[in-house]
Amino acid sequence: MLSTLIAGAAARRAWVQLRAPLRYRADFYTSVFGNVIVLAVGGVMIGTMFHHIPTLVGWTVWEVIFLWSWLETVVAFTHLTCAGLLVFNRQYLVNGELDRMLLRPGDPLLGVIVDNVSGQELPGCFVAMTALGVAAFQLGLGWSALLIVPGVVGSLAVFASILIVFASLGFHVRHSGTAVGVVFQAASYARYPFELYPRPVRMLLILGLLGFLAYIPAGTLLGRVAMGWVHLPIAALCLAGAYGFYRLGLNRYSSTGT
Question: 170: Cβ–Cβ under 8 A, 6 or more apart, which residues?
Fold first, then answer.
């Protein structure tokens, strides 16, 4: 009963956070326009590249757009749901706001995530999903396009797992900065076909889980990757492992006294 009440309260809080940007319609529409421009620039860059070459390591223009928009969708939803992890070390550990979360019922990690749900990222999610849908239509994926939904959820779980691990490092190494920015920089390598990279780099990206953000699930739907069946099991294992690492750090946490 208590867990149901906590989950309900968290859902209501997240819903309030999501609706907040709609109170300022001008800012919301400006955000939509900005996201369209950013994705359009990426699309123009890909189109320009394919104007000079017929394929990119065997990938067609719409296949590359499909892969690129898959990652953009995952990144947009990560900013929407996991913004709290980006400031976890500085805001919650160093500044002591985790003490406030510990006084609330439920898991502190859930509180951090819910309190930082960023409704301002909704336009980015919508625009990226639209680009992904257009690419799927152009590729003629048909009913198999429905597999995009669990695929993106699995990719989001992997990305969230990586961020949880990096954020939880703050329990062991206290510093005022954050290392999660490195994750987003590294994720930019997953925007393009891995065949572009030398084999050692390719293996490093896959072993570092970045291949599960877009290349493996998107490549599976395109018939270019044969190991797609491991995507969702790996995502579940990553999320469980990351949560275990977070709990280990939480057990070592001592209040800042603020």
Answer: 88, 89, 93, 94, 249
Structure tokens at 211: 């291949």
Can you give the pLDDT at residue 160?
Answer: 93
Q: How many helices (H) and strands (E) does the chain have?
A: 12, 0
Helices 108-115 and 2-19: crossing angle, nearest 10°? 20
For residue 198, which amino acid is it?
P
Q: Which of 151, 107, 87 has its CA nearest to residue 243?
A: 107
Q: What is the pLDDT of residue 27?
A: 62
Q: How far apart are CA 248 and CA 240, in angstroms?
A: 12
According to the model, what pLDDT value does residue 53 have? 75
Assess contact for 22 and 28: CB atoms under 8 A.
yes
CB neighbours of residue 94 within 10 Å: 18
User: If we measure between CA atoms, which residue out of 255, 89, 95 comes closest to residue 168?
Assistant: 89
Max Cα–Cα distance, the chain, nearest Å: 62
What φ, ψ does residue 56 adopt, rounded to 5°? -115, 105
Burial class, 42, CB count within 10 angstroms (exposed 0-12 / middle 13-18 / buried 19+)? middle
Query: Which of 250, 227, 22 has its CA nearest to residue 122?
Result: 22
What is the token pair recorded at 231?
């995507």
Q: 98 vs 45, which has greater pLDDT? A: 98
Write down the mean pLDDT value for the chain.
79
Question: For 81, how many CA atoms within 13 A lie in the half-sphere containing its CB?
Answer: 18
* Coil vs helix vs strand at 205: helix
The CB-side HSE value for 204 (13 A sphere, CA atoms) comes to 8
pTM metric for this prediction: 0.84
